Amino acid sequence: MNTQTPFIRVSNLNYQYPDGTHALWDINLEIYEGEFIAFIGQNGSGKTTLSKCLNGLFKPTSGDVIVEDLNSKTSSIVQMVRRVGYVFQNPDHQLFNNNCWDEIAYGPRNIQLPEEQVKERVEEAAQVVGLPERYFSEHPFFLSKGLRQRVAIASILALRPKLIIVDEPTTGQDARQSFEIMDFLKDLNENHGHIIVIITHDMPIVAAYARRVVAMGQGRILADGPTAEVFKQTELLAQTFLEPPQITQLAQRVQDLGYDPGTLTVESMVAQHIALHASQDNP
Ligand SMILES: Nc1ncnc2c1ncn2[C@@H]1O[C@H](COP(=O)(O)OP(=O)(O)OP(=O)(O)O)[C@@H](O)[C@H]1O
Ligand SMILES: [Mg+2]
Prior knowledge:
The chain has 283 residues and is α/β, with parallel strands linked by helices. Helices cover 40% and strands 21% of the residues.
């Protein structure tokens, strides 16, 4: 049991789109300071809809989303996005200014901060995401996908939200770029005080970075817990058409030999292997 006060408390949340699609059913969820969470689930399971409810873009059809002292139903979008930032699945859907500076400054200007504070926010956000000054006057579309994503994240960071939700951070990126962006999110989590939620279909990325997994199916939460615990629920995961990473599957197949079915990384598998052999060699 977590005895802290949650940063977000979602209770009995239902969400229906204007066309009548009932996308979320009775969602109950609490998110705490310091967490790094992955939302997983097949296409159409409700991950993006839930995220947009968390940052106030969508208001509950019924139930509540409480962020710190604010109920999303009675709060303005501006109040909400200063607490919960959402980085779109495709950063290009979010970038619309003619240069990176204006892009990052858009949020702070929108909340009517004085221009010197805007400058401070832009410089800070650019520094955190590692966007060199020489790009400030460039059009975002002339940058690489990796840098465009950094600009998109910087534009969210400039509002200094505690929680940052990144929808599909690694889609369309090669392995090196994926680890780069994930290491960057890990740094925001560990060294800059941000709660991170990623939405992803990439299970090795979940295993390597997320400490908690929320698995969704057909608009409901099917499982919610520490990553290793959720990956042990193979039948439930199969319902979501997701498989744990291969190293976890291997450990589960040989668990009778003493391996932990919640193994998440090759390094951990190797360490267990060495320990098991050492104990066999020295009975
Ligand atoms: N604008 C919309 N109007 C009506 N229904 C929608 C709209 N956007 C999404 N939906 C429906 O809501 C449900 C949840 O969709 P959502 O986009 O939240 O899923 P997701 O888990 O993010 O999927 P993906 O992995 O494909 O991004 C689906 O049935 C989807 O078809
Ligand atoms: Mg989505």
